[in-house]
Amino acid sequence: MDLAAIDCFVKVAEARSLSEASKLWRLPKSTLSHKIRQLEDQLAVALFVREGRDMVLTDAGAEFLTHAHRIQESCDNAEAAVTAMRQDVGGTLTIGSTGEFGTSFTSELLFAFRERYPQVRIDVIFLSEGFLFAPERLKAFDGIFYWGQPSLVDYVARKLTDASFGLYASPVYLERHGTPRTPAELNDHRGIAFRLPTGLQNWHLVSGEEQTDIFPASSCTANDYWMIKYFAVAGEGIAYLPGFFTETECERGNLVPVLSQWRSPAVPVNLLYPRRRFVSRKFEAFQTFCTEYYEHRSQHYVPSYCVEVVSFPKFQS
Q1: Per the database record, which ranges form the HTH lysR-type domain (predicted)?
Q2: Are 190 and 177 in contact (CB under 8 A)?
Q3: Superfamily for 165-265?
Q4: What is the rounded CA–CA span in Å between residue 93 and residue 143?
Q5: What confidence tens digit (pLDDT) does each residue in 28-52 have?
Q6: Domain residue extents for the chain
Q7: Fold identical between 1-86 and 88-163+266-307?
Q8: Considering only CA atoms, which of 54, 137, 101 is closest in space to residue 242?
């Protein structure tokens, strides 16, 4: 039986759509469709039925998916066992990442990992919330960076670090509008707000036993934290952002903390991975590295990835 066809079948089954599987795994729809037809012809059964835009497994397809996962696991175990015999760490790690901060958070850690294990190839896929909360779709990932407390009971959650939000603004903005000294004074300032699916994100802040929720008057709203940070650096207002996400901008003086004693409660950042009977050397090395990375982060050199100083060109007439 064609292992490539089985792999394509699993990808479509997990994505529930040829189009979604094509986008997620960067494979031509024609290839996925051909491989599935090839399997159906060989098995003499239909593996999917269409329901609107979704491709839903038939009873035979659901049964075959169970065995397909076992076949893939067996192949992974065989590769891992042979790799272990060579006493090195190699192969491909498929990593999922959630949240808006994957570009900075995930890139930094993976770059450092590749510096230590250059023979390991990395395939990173950013997951939408809808994809994430369909656990049956996640079997193909070695691990997933997850922001928050996971509810996926079939997965091991290894905490990597904590992150909390605070308020940040550019020196230019504070020079023009003054620096707030209390949360109440934030009502006199412009905010740059993140838009959640349910509405604008409030600024939940805690200082000792006190806590407050601020709903700022917003000069700009967006559902992308990089845009929020860009507008903050450009002097458009005060932004509510995680500390690690603003480190480089603060070091360079492009942003400064506002009301630094007020921050959000800490949110855990976890590495999720399926429970496995046999752990490959590459993933064993990866999870160990991830756990230790944030304990010794200052010892790693990684390139900065930040919003540079925003300059305003002068146009001559």
Answers
A1: 1-58
A2: yes
A3: Periplasmic binding protein-like II (3.40.190.10)
A4: 8
A5: 999 999 999 999 999 999 999 988 8
A6: 1-86, 88-163+266-307, 165-265
A7: no
A8: 101
Please tell us whether the domain made up of 88-163+266-307 is placed in CATH 3.40.190.10: yes
Percent of the chain with pLDDT over 90: 35
Distance CA 205, CA 80 (A): 46
Burial class (CB within 10 angstroms; exposed 0-12, middle 13-18, buried 19+) of 167? buried
Residues 51-75 have pLDDT tens digits of 888 899 999 999 999 898 888 878 8
268-279 b/e with 16+ CB inside 10 Å = b? ebbbbbbeeeeb
- Which of 113-122, 173-182, 293-302 comes out lowest in average pLDDT? 293-302
State residue 11 phi and psi, 5-degree precision: -60, -45
Q: Which fold has domain 1-86?
A: Arc Repressor Mutant, subunit A (1.10.10)
- SS3 string of 233-248? HCCCCEEEEECHHHHH
313 burial level (CB within 10 Å; 0-12, 13-18, 19+):
exposed
Structure tokens at 129: 């919330």
Give the span between the Cα atoms of 139 and 154, in whole angstroms. 11
Give the C-alpha separation, 137 to 21, whole Å: 10
Q: What is the DSSP string of 43-107?
A: HTS--EEEETTEEEE-HHHHHHHHHHHHHHHHHHHHHHHHHHHHTS--EEEEEEE-STTHHHHHH
Alpha carbon 172 to chain centroid, angstroms: 32
Give the count of beta carbons closer than 10 Å to the beta carbon of residue 20.
20
What average pLDDT does the segment 165-177 reach? 95
pLDDT at 99: 66
- Residue 266 pLDDT > 60: yes
Per residue in 40-68, is it b (16+ CB within 10 Å) or e — as a string? beeeeeebbeeeeeebebeeebeebbeeb
